[in-house]
Amino acid sequence: MRGRQGTGRTTDRTTDRTTGGPASGATGRSSAKRRTRARARARTWAALAAAGALALTGCGDGGDKKADPPGGATPAGRRVELPKLPGEKLEVAAVWTGPEQENFTKVLKEFEKRTGATVTFVPAQDPIVTFLGTKIAGGAPPDVALLPQVGALAAAVEKKWAQPVGPEAQAQLNANYGEGWKKLGAVDGTQYGVYYKAANKSLIWYNAKAFEAAGVQPPKTWKELLEVADTLSASGTPAVSVAGADGWTLTDWFENVYLSQAGPQKYDQLAKHEIKWTDDSVKQALTTLGQLFGRKDFLAGGQSGALSTEFPKSVTQTFTGGDRPAAAMVFEGDFVGVNIAQTEAKVGEDALVFPFPAVGAKAPVVSGGDVAVALKPSKGAQALLTFLASPDAAEIQAREGGFVSPNKAVDPGAYPNAIQRNIAKSLIAAGDDFRFDMSDQAPAGFGGTPGAGEWKALQDFLANPSDVAGAQAKLEAEAAKAYGG
Fold first, then answer.
1. Helix (H) or strand (E) holding 79
2. For the chain, which residues make up each domain, given as ranges?
3. Per the record, where are the segments of Basic residues compositional bias (predicted)?
């Protein structure tokens, strides 16, 4: 889930990152959006984005009606078979904290109940590869780790830490997952991971009362977003709450602008460092982002306030204070619901959502997620991967909110409200047509380290949005170092 997205940065990026220091750090991460239009199979993520927005703002599918499971779903009442593991002790590491960790613990409790094993959750720190390296060097690796970056999975395989998935977990993957999500969990054709959690990183959540007080509607384009921000600011409510203390949120801002403006081909090239960060397309995206970041009155607390705001606070301060919150909008994924639940606001009533506005021809859709990987060749580790690849596990956490699964066998009725349900439906309907979080594809030294690499360069850019050339130079220098030239 970056999480970066976290859920998922889904590490998922919800409450799934730990604080790394004054201008770095913090919680969070994790994918999906828009409510499906009419024909599920031909949908692109961009189309899904618009449809999802309608569902989320109340023009939905009839509220909380329980939907039929998608094709291929596990029949009701059927549960994945797990081995009995009496007396076995397992450790599971993830960069998750707060409600996200608590909700995942409920999944682990069910695994304990079914197998007789004892599972301990081990809070990890970013970058998780460094954390795991320390544990492995000390002779105490966790049995399973949930990694927030594709780059982290590649590093774990390169270092020979990761174990290939066993036949039982592979069977669950084959039955329940699309090819795109399976490929993300594979390295050089070998399946190592199970994408347990996904995140839609292209959503902007807003305070319905603040929008009503200012007389504005959800924007569909970047130009309209700036106009709405200007109206909100003039009404006395800053437009956006930016979690600048957590650098991963800034990478998500950049990626959405870049994907929509530069297009998917350039996005893929930049993700692989096949083009440099000094490319003119990066200049255009940073200049566009600077139109928002450069307006002190648009940001809750201005640039300095944004740089001291961590992800959980960026959400909660948007949904407290009635029609006069600290800000009217907050950008991040579906997992924001976990943090909204810490306020008095109700998702679907006080807290609504719209797709990230189109900067170019199409609105962007960026996904993230957390991949579960076995680090020990044990029966218990493989059993846990099998469980996490089943709909059984995902449905437990889905009921708690702030969670979306890429598992197509999950019953949509497990999601607690129409917003989460439609995000999940859109994710499944999109099939393999999505772009994964760019920073999560990068080496951890560039795309996943608090206070360093892309995170720090974009924090410096938030502090001084007029210095586009300087930001590009820093980004390229850090990328060249991380990618090896």
1. none
2. 203-355
3. 31-42
How many angstroms separate the Cα of 19 from the Cα of each of 311, 334, 357? Answer: 10, 21, 29
Residue 22 DSSP label: T
| Closest C-alpha to 147, from 45, 2, 256, 327 | 2
Distance separating alpha carbons of residues 376 and 90, to the nearest angstrom: 10
Give the pLDDT confidence score for residue 430 in this predicted structure: 72
Q: Which CATH class is domain 203-355?
A: alpha beta
pLDDT of residue 2: 44
User: CB of 261 within 8 A of CB of 287?
Assistant: no
pLDDT single digits (tens) 436-455 = 999 989 998 999 899 999 99
Alpha carbons 230 and 216: distance in angstroms, whole number: 10
Out of 4-8, 340-344, 454-458, pick the least confident.
Answer: 4-8
Angle, alpha carbons 87-88-93 (nearest 5°): 140
**Of residues 355 and 329, more confidently modeled:** 329
- Full DSSP string of 115-155: H--EEEEEE--SSHHHHHHHHHHTT---SEEEES-HHHHHH
For residue 56, the Cα-to-chain-centroid distance in whole angstroms is 18
| 144: its two tokens | 């399973």
Please provide the DSSP assignment of 431-456 as one string.
Answer: TT--EE-HHHHS-HHHHS-TTSHHHH
Please give the C-alpha separations between residue 317 and each of 314, 326, 330, 340, 443, in angstroms, as whole numbers.
6, 6, 9, 9, 33
The end-to-end CA distance of the chain, in Å, is 28
Residue of 36, 30, 4, 7 whose CA lies nearest to 446 = 4
Which token pair is 19? 């604080």
* pLDDT at position 120 over 60: yes
Tokens at residue 9, please? Answer: 């940065």
Integer angstrom CA distances of residue 20 from 17, 25, 126, 252, 481: 9, 4, 8, 18, 21
Indicate the SS3 state at residue 162: coil
Compute the mean pLDDT over every residue in the chain, rounded to the nearest whole number: 85
Least confident of 72-86, 131-145, 384-398: 72-86
Which pTM value belongs to this model?
A: 0.74
